[in-house]
Amino acid sequence: MDEDKEIQSCLSCSAEMGGQNERKSHHNEKTIKELSNRMNRIEGQVRGIKGMIERHVYCDDILNQIASVQSALNGVSKLLLEKHMKSCVCERLEAKDTEVIDEVLKTIFRMMK
């Protein structure tokens, strides 16, 4: 199977729909690896912050690390949104499923909070 065509679960669009089939995105292995690597780094940063709290590290230093994690998560969100728009959303629009527009807007508004 062509790597670009391989179907993979997507973090943002593989939600169960009331017991119906799961929706799947079509991200290639490179994208999945990039997202996974970023999330692994963030996971390590969060564990580091927990350790800093337990070691009574100065609050400002912890807050700076938290800001770094938030920025990293925003980066993952932006990348995933881009991939979602270029694959999942395009496919649904090509299939005349205009509900996807409201879904994406709701997601973007939630991200902007």
How would you characterize this protein structure?
The longest helix has 36 residues, at 59-94. With 113 residues, the chain is an all-alpha fold. The protein contains three helices and no strands. The protein has one domain (3-111): Up-down Bundle (Methane Monooxygenase Hydroxylase, Chain G, domain 1).
Offer a concise description of the structure:
This protein has 113 residues and is mainly α.
Layout: helices, strands, pairs:
Elements: H1 29-54, H2 59-94, H3 99-111
**Major pleated sheet:** none
Radius of gyration: 17 Å
Helical residue percent band? 55-70%
Shape: elongated
The averaged pLDDT comes out at 84
Count of DSSP H/I helices: 3
CATH class bucket = Mainly Alpha
Task: State the secondary-structure class.
Answer: mainly alpha
Low-confidence segments, given as residue ranges, are: 1-20
> Order of helices and strands, N to C?
HHH
State the distance separating the first and last CA atoms: 40 Å
Specify the CATH architecture: Up-down Bundle
Q: Supply the number of structural domains.
A: 1
Report strand %: under 5%
